[in-house]
Design a protein that fits this description.
The complex is a heterotrimer of chains A (230), B (325) and C (814).
Chain A: E1 11-12, E2 19-20, H1 23-33, E3 45-50, E4 53-58, H2 65-72, E5 91-94, E6 97-100, E7 113-115, H3 117-122, H4 126-133, H5 143-156, H6 162-168, H7 181-195, H8 215-229
Parallel strand pairs in A: 3-7
Antiparallel strand pairs in A: 1-2, 3-4, 5-6, 5-7
Helix pairs in contact in A: 4-7, 5-7, 7-8
Chain B: E1 5-8, H1 12-22, E2 26-29, H2 35-41, E3 50-53, E4 63-66, E5 69-73, H3 78-83, H4 85-90, H5 92-100, H6 104-109, H7 112-117, H8 159-162, H9 171-177, E6 181-184, E7 188-190, H10 191-194, E8 195-198, E9 201-203, E10 211-217, E11 223-230, E12 241-250, E13 253-262, E14 269-270, H11 272-278, H12 285-295, H13 307-322
Parallel strand pairs in B: 1-3, 2-3
Antiparallel strand pairs in B: 4-5, 5-10, 6-7, 6-10, 8-9, 11-12, 12-13, 13-14
Chain C: H1 3-13, H2 39-43, E1 59-65, E2 71-77, H3 79-83, E3 87-92, E4 119-120, E5 126-133, H4 136-144, E6 147-152, E7 188-191, H5 194-200, E8 203-211, E9 223-229, E10 232-237, H6 242-249, E11 261-264, H7 283-295, E12 299-302, E13 312-313, E14 317-325, E15 331-341, H8 352-357, E16 363-366, E17 368-370, E18 377-378, H9 385-402, H10 406-413, H11 421-430, H12 438-450, H13 452-455, E19 469-478, E20 485-493, E21 500-505, H14 513-525, E22 532-537, H15 553-575, E23 579-582, E24 585-587, E25 599-602, E26 605-608, E27 615-617, H16 618-622, E28 648-655, E29 670-680, E30 685-696, H17 703-722, E31 754-759, H18 776-793, E32 799-800, H19 804-810
Parallel strand pairs in C: 1-12, 8-32, 10-11, 13-18, 15-16, 15-17, 21-22, 30-31
Antiparallel strand pairs in C: 1-5, 2-4, 2-6, 3-5, 7-16, 8-14, 9-10, 9-12, 14-15, 19-29, 20-21, 20-28, 23-24, 25-26, 26-27, 29-30
Helix pairs in contact in C: 9-10, 9-18, 14-15, 17-18
Classes of the chains: A alpha+beta (230), B alpha+beta (325), C alpha/beta (814).
């Protein structure tokens, strides 16, 4: 590939962005170097899978993944708190990693698998119920970011220990300070997930006793349940 | 963010060619966690006209171990480094530095090369809308000298003897302590020679040069490394001071030592005097303390940051003690 | 007048005593409930916040902000900005639609202010221009194209020096003569004779403390949306008091009738008082309304993250103390002075808590408020920060100076209004409360939980195996939830299934007050909790005190309870009265041979007290509604199904709290907090290893929510105590750390385990004896770092936050 110092070149290769002085040069280059590649998508078009659905979208270069999912697609569960990669409220799972959608350019997520809080809730992940049960929220603005982070953790580590949960949540800021309520909720959800890997329909009217609240109590309860169930 | 051209590079050569094409107005993007923050805050007088995405280049995200040599691809995420069993075992300082960087989410995004190529940390330099056109932006003065310099350099300034902004990387001192080599599209550079302070630059990289990987010779048996970070909070924080050490010992005595501090100077600060102080001696509390004193003997703090000297000294002592057999 | 009505009236005008009419037994009150009412919606990311609102054709509006801490716009050229593609309009300070002053304070009625000022009094202030564009990005780019010619003025940033600076007047427009703005106005608190008190003291000592500026950091940025529907205005507001927002809007543009204003107050990404209490906080809406009228488009205005950082808590400044005490720890006199900055409510004296909950007979405190060129300081969870700070400082210094256990000093001085515990206990009895020693209960439970007696040691004496110094700290004060206020709530029994809907103002700040109302209504009505729901009325026609207006359950709890009691009576009347009278006859009552007093309701089932087997579920009582609604059902004639009386009741309550000087209610409930720290004396790092909170909340309603306040207050407090500080450049007056990386709020890793001990003495003035818990922990914990660190290192650091540099300096290591 040659470097072309002339910045006024007109002909840009749609495959590799190399520039050519004449159309014929570009044509020769494409036939030589990219003959067997599929026709590239128009500039700015990206394809991604969000919560299992395929999307084909136009994205300006400066559009962040957050802008795309929150503002354009209306997936408002991802929240913008710091807008600088410091708080975790806009967390989504991309290719299995919990990442910050405010610090990812949408165009760079082309071809990726993305999971948002909406997908997690739709799949009846037990985290939703355990968060509601254990009051792991106050104003709720940062809560989806915590849930998404926790989901990524449970995916990787189905039986996380207290300190592993705390480490995993160390990138999520909660101004209301609900932190101690999260490990309990996450532990319980992890246990539920192991019991019902495919998810379990949430009941609309919960009646279950919510008195076991300490991490140790939930852990013990979980162990007992698992022993009985497995 | 302002509009820019976005290019997905497919090869290193293509990325180099794009850098050349935009002649200084192109910027590389990997994890993006530093660059996008800078662009959102509009801290610079000029914006990149083009972002050249390196993540689309295949084969730069790997950790390889062969013939006593670790090679880590430039795009390897910090979390993968932190989790890598062999690195944890043999290059502990690097794995630990990666583990302590930023936050879990940022470690899933940020790359090793990005971490060492990140820009300086200074709240004047990084103030929104280019509020302080300082030396590092080609301006006339450093605002930290007369201002609030509680997080600035304790070993003097640079750029016309002025800029006191610190280099904030956690992995950089670990790489220097481990005597790593930075492999670029052009050459191989010793980690400690990699950093250079200039207007708009933090490294010696040419404008069309790209880091492709990092090589670390597996430390010989009998050597140990350590990394410690001191920050105000326990996560989501840059180091106030960090330190890495790699120590080889034989017969209870230190035979070789590499100690590096960061966030205390305009670039990673190799504590040569501390190394000299410990070589040939056993790592005892007393000898480590002497090395700690030696590490900061050249400190010349600003009005608000003298406390960092004490912390730097302490971290040197503690990293040394952590390297005890 | 019915007896319930009478009860309500009595309570309404007599809330200076214990609840006369509590329930005999509680089913849901005090329990952990299976699920918070907003739990699923918030966890699933379905809750909608004002920041999420997008309307068709909506424009985005951003304000120009001042690059200087004190400056006046001489000239402004907006031509280039107006020409930028995507910009729809630019609003300027000199446009005819912008009045010099307008009512724009959405929290407390204050004097009118300039909606788009020409003069900036702090760097970052919204001034001069607002741009509305198709996107936020375009609006921001346009702002950079505005050319402004500024006249820079002298500024001052130093609270302590401000009163002396007559050359750098911070606000020439409002306070042209001096930066000291409250001279002679609410500036002195006086009790007894301090000189006499000092004469009685065995030991007198003086000291000084500082609290550096910290701020609220609401996760959702300040924002709003305005849309005109003809002459009617529709507004989406992030406000703690949406009813005030509505009243303010009604005064705009020559007056808009209240019934032509629709206000939506959605979920709020917390504000902790904070920005929503600043005087200008409806200024954004005002300018958006002007632009919306000009363009015919809905307009959303936003602050960016940094812009939310300007301003802060009212405790910023310097405190001076002189304290006299006897050898046994009895405090005989406290003299205080303080200089605090930028308060717009200069009424909260730093020594107020000493009067409110100690027996100290002689107290005098001056309270200077000065203006500096930083943002306004407002109640920031909460206005008691300065009082809690001074209180903790004084008590711990007394213990330290006399070598006493701080819990003993606390117990020795407990009381109120200069009187001892005997007096206070008489007051408890006189007002109908069970006489309990709240502080002693807090202290005993807290000491046991943290292992105080085994761990307590003189300052600076306990080095741990890990090399760090171990420290224990204790502080205390009273509980509060005592603002004046009023509340209106209604409950309706739904047709078809007999469930209950509570109707009240929508204003969700996250404390789960709505679940608590359901618990109260369920217990009062005898219904199952799952059959009661809170339906927020987004347009604040009904009024209630919102949880972060410092008062929740003590007012709203009464209102919902009144409604429930009236409703229950109605239900039982309906169950015993013929219904559906028409030409064709009437339907017999559900319980034909019984009077209402012979019935009761439990688990949503009405039953005869004498024969519980005779019962009917509420759902059956209300019956189904058919094609023509519940009133007419030809098909079902002859069956008892339809009824004609809508089951609806309305309750309200007003309260004049302790802040009203003519209605004193001594505070009986106390809280005690214990903190264990490790201090690394070589790096200055503080590690908070354990916090034990003991809160006498009188009566627990929503247990998990109370614990949530204890957890959350602790984390917020720890952040404030060890790292939170808004930092300005001393040379240029520019804020340096207006972002979440450089302004460091606590992460999950920044505190060790937190104990949540709740004590129920019943000695609150609210329904069932409740008192508040939401504000006090975050307010007390920051300064508790002081005692804990002192106990660890044996050296006092009276400058908050206690950062590593201060510790190392105190230890002589810098």
């Amino acid at each position: 590939m040659t470097d072309n110092p002339n910045k006024n070149s007109k002909y840009l290769c749609p495959y590799c962005s190399t520039q050519y002085q004449t159309f014929d040069d570009l044509k020769t280059h494409i036939l030589k170097d990219h003959k067997n590649e599929p026709i590239p998508a128009p500039e700015g078009m990206i394809a991604m899978t969000i919560n299992g659905g395929s999307y084909s979208l136009r994205a300006e270069p400066e559009l962040t993944l957050y802008d795309l999912i929150h503002d354009r697609l209306g997936l408002i569960g991802s929240k913008q708190f710091c807008d600088r990669g410091a708080c975790g409220s806009c967390t989504v799972i991309m290719e299995g990693r919990a990442i910050l959608s405010c610090m990812a350019l949408a165009v760079e997520c082309d071809g990726k698998q993305i999971e948002t809080i909406e997908g997690i809730a739709e799949a009846e992940h037990p985290l939703i119920e355990s968060y509601a049960k254990h009051h792991a929220m106050q104003c709720g603005y940062c809560t989806p970011g915590f849930v998404v982070t926790a989901k990524a953790l449970i995916d990787k580590n189905p039986a996380p220990a207290d300190n592993e949960i705390r480490e995993a949540l160390a990138g999520n800021l909660c101004r209301c300070g609900t932190y101690p309520q999260h490990p309990v909720a996450i532990l319980e959800a992890a246990v539920e997930k192991r019991k019902f890997p495919e998810g379990k329909k949430r009941s609309l009217k919960p009646t279950e006793d919510a008195d076991k609240l300490s991490f140790e109590a939930v852990k013990q309860d979980a162990l007992d349940k698992l022993k009985g169930g497995e | 963010m302002k509009r820019f051209v976005h290019i997905n590079a497919k090869t290193v050569e293509e990325a180099v060619s794009c850098l050349n094409r935009y002649g200084g107005k192109g910027s590389l993007i990997a994890g993006g966690t530093d660059l996008l923050g800078k662009m959102k805050d509009m801290i610079l007088p000029n914006y990149p006209e083009a972002l050249i995405n390196l993540k689309t280049i295949p084969g730069l995200d790997y950790i390889d171990e062969k013939d006593g040599l670790f090679t880590i691809g430039a795009l390897t995420r910090l979390q993968d480094i932190a989790d890598h069993p062999a690195l944890k075992d043999r290059c502990y300082a690097l794995a630990e530095a990666a583990r302590r960087t930023a936050s879990p989410h940022l470690r899933e995004m940020g790359t090793l090369a990005g971490n060492i190529c990140q820009d300086i940390r200074c709240w004047y330099y990084r103030n929104e809308n280019n509020r302080f056109p300082c030396l590092r932006k080609g301006g006339g003065r450093c605002y930290a000298i007369d201002g609030d310099n509680r997080y600035h350099s304790i070993f003097g300034g640079s750029v016309k003897k002025g800029c006191y902004a610190v280099h904030p990387s956690d992995t950089a001192p670990a790489l220097i302590a481990l005597n790593a080599k930075i492999i670029t599209s052009k050459r191989s550079i010793k980690a400690e020679d990699f950093f250079k302070v200039g207007v708009k630059t933090t490294t010696i990289l040419d404008s069309d040069e790209i880091v492709t990987g990092i090589q670390i010779r597996k430390p010989e048996n009998g050597s140990k490394s350590a990394f410690l970070k001191f920050a105000i909070r326990k996560s989501i924080d840059f180091p106030l001071v960090n330190a890495a050490a790699c120590i080889s010992s034989a017969g209870g005595k230190v035979t070789a030592a590499r100690i590096c501090l960061n966030a205390v100077y305009v670039k990673p600060y190799r504590a040569v005097k501390a190394e000299d102080a410990i070589i040939g001696k056993a790592i005892t509390e007393e000898n480590a303390a002497a090395a700690g004193e030696a590490a900061v003997v050249e400190a010349d703090p600003l009005p608000h940051n003298a406390y960092m000297v004490q912390i730097a000294k302490t971290l040197v002592i503690r990293t040394l003690l952590a390297c005890r057999e | 007048m019915g007896s319930e009505e009478q009860t309500r009236m009595e309570e309404m005008f007599d809330n200076l005593r214990a609840d006369k009419y509590p329930l005999k037994e509680y089913t849901y009150i005090g329990k952990r409930i299976p699920r918070r009412i907003d739990g699923v919606v918030k966890a699933a990311g379905q809750a909608v916040y004002t920041m999420d609102v997008q309307l068709p054709g909506m424009l985005h509006m951003r304000f120009l902000t001042s690059p200087y801490p004190h400056a006046k716009i001489k000239n402004m050229d907006t031509g280039k900005a107006e020409k930028l593609p995507g910009v729809r309009t630019v609003l300027r300070y000199d446009d005819p639609e912008i009045p010099e002053f307008a009512p724009i304070s959405g929290h407390t009625p204050t004097a009118d202010e300039p909606p788009l000022p020409r003069i900036a009094h702090f760097q970052g202030e919204e001034v001069g221009a607002a741009v509305a564009a198709d996107t936020e990005t375009i609006a921001e780019q346009a702002l950079t194209l505005i050319k402004t010619d500024w006249e820079e003025r002298p500024f001052n940033l130093d609270t302590e020096a401000a009163p002396l600076q007559d050359t750098a007047i911070a606000n020439l427009e409002m306070y042209p003569d001096s930066n000291h703005i409250n001279e002679g106005l609410l500036d002195v608190l006086e009790l007894g004779d301090v000189e006499k008190g000092f004469a009685e003291a065995d030991k007198i000592f003086e000291f000084k403390s500082f609290r550096r500026l910290h701020t609220w950091v609401g996760p959702e940025r300040p924002c709003g949306v305005i849309k005109w529907n003809g002459d009617c205005i529709e507004a989406w507001v992030k406000q703690q008091r949406p009813h005030i927002a509505k009243r303010v809007i009604s005064k705009w543009f020559g007056g808009i009738p209240m019934n032509q204003i629709q206000v939506h107050c959605l979920s709020q990404g917390a504000s902790f008082g904070g920005w929503s209490q600043t005087n200008w906080n409806m200024g954004g809406h005002y300018c958006a309304a002007v632009i919306a009228r000009r363009t015919g488009r809905p307009v959303k205005w936003t602050f960016n993250r940094r812009e939310d950082f300007y301003g802060g808590s009212m405790d910023e400044g310097a405190y001076f103390y002189k304290v006299g005490a006897k050898e046994d720890g009895t405090i005989t006199a406290v003299w205080g002075d303080s200089i605090l900055s930028n308060q717009i409510y200069p009424v909260f004296n730093p020594l107020k808590h000493l009067v409110e909950n100690t027996r100290i007979p002689n107290i005098y405190c001056k309270h200077k408020v000065v203006m500096i060129n930083k943002g306004p300081t407002v109640p920031t969870r909460c206005e008691q920060n300065s009082a809690a700070h001074a209180f903790t400082m004084i008590f711990d210094h007394v213990a330290g100076e006399l070598g006493l256990d701080p819990t003993e000093v606390a117990l020795k001085n407990d009381g109120a209004d200069g009187h001892d515990m005997d007096w206070l206990n008489q007051q408890k009895a006189k007002r109908g409360f069970e006489v309990r020693d709240s502080l002693r209960e807090c202290v005993e439970k807290g000491k046991a939980a943290i292992g105080w007696d085994e761990k307590w040691h003189p300052p600076g004496e306990k080095k741990l195996a890990n090399g760090r110094m171990h420290g224990l700290g204790f502080t205390w004060t009273h509980e509060w939830d005592d603002s004046a206020g009023s509340s209106e709530m209604a409950i309706r029994i739904e047709r078809n299934d007999g469930t209950a809907t509570i109707l009240g103002m929508g204003c969700d700040n996250g404390v789960d007050a709505e679940s608590s109302y359901c618990q109260v209504a369920a217990d009062e009505l005898g219904m199952r909790l799952e059959d009661v729901h809170y339906n927020p009325q987004f347009d604040p026609g009904y009024f209630r005190m919102t949880p972060d207006s410092s008062t929740n359950m003590s007012i709203n709890g009464f209102a919902v309870r009144h409604a429930a009691r009236i409703l229950k009576k109605k239900i039982l009347e309906v169950a015993t009265t013929p219904v559906g009278k028409s030409q064709r006859g009437e339907f017999p009552p559900a319980f034909p041979d019984a009077g209402p007093e012979e019935l009761n309701i439990k688990d949503s089932v009405i039953f005869l007290k004498a024969d519980p087997e005779k019962k009917m579920p509420l759902s059956e009582l209300v019956g189904a509604s058919f094609n023509s609604g519940p009133l007419v059902d030809p098909e079902a004639l002859g069956v008892r199904t339809p009824f004609t009386v809508p089951l609806f009741a309305f309750g309200y309550h007003t309260q004049t709290g302790t802040y009203q000087p003519n209605q004193p209610r001594p505070r009986f409930c106390r809280q005690g907090h214990f903190m264990e720290v490790e201090v690394d004396t070589d790096t200055g790092q503080i590690i908070v290893t354990r916090v034990v909170n003991t809160n006498d909340v009188g009566k627990v309603i929503n247990r998990a929510s109370c614990e949530g306040q204890q957890y959350g207050g602790t984390y917020m407090g720890v952040g404030r105590g060890i790292s939170e500080e808004v930092i300005y450049d001393p040379v240029t007056g520019v804020m340096l750390n207006g972002n979440l990386l450089d302004y460091k709020i606590a992460t999950i890793l920044d505190s060790g385990p937190i104990d949540t001990i709740l004590i129920e003495s019943g000695m609150g003035y609210g329904p069932y004896g409740v008192v508040g818990i939401g504000e006090d922990i975050a307010t007390l914990i920051p300064t508790l770092l002081g005692p804990a660190v002192y106990n660890a290192i044996g050296v006092r650091i009276n400058d908050f936050p206690i950062t590593p540099d201060k510790i190392l300096t105190a230890l002589g290591k810098v």
